[in-house]
Amino acid sequence: MAARSGGFQLLLLLLGLAARGPAAAAAAKMKVVEEPNSFGLNNPFLPQTSRLQPKRDPSPLSGPAHLFRLSGKCFSLVESTYKYELCPFHNVTQHEQTFRWNAYSGILGIWHEWEISNNTFRGMWMRDGDSCRSRSRQSKVELTCGKSNRLAHVSEPSTCVYALTFETPLVCHPHSLLVYPALPAALQHRWDQVEQDLADELITSQGYEKLLRVLFEEAGYLKTPEDSDSVREGGAKALAFQTLENCSEAHRELWKEVRRLRSLLTQHGIPYAQAAETPPSEHGGPRTPTDGTAERLHGDPGRRGNTL
Question: Of 32, 47, 196, 204, whose CA is between 20 and 30 Å from 19?
Answer without folding.
Answer: 32
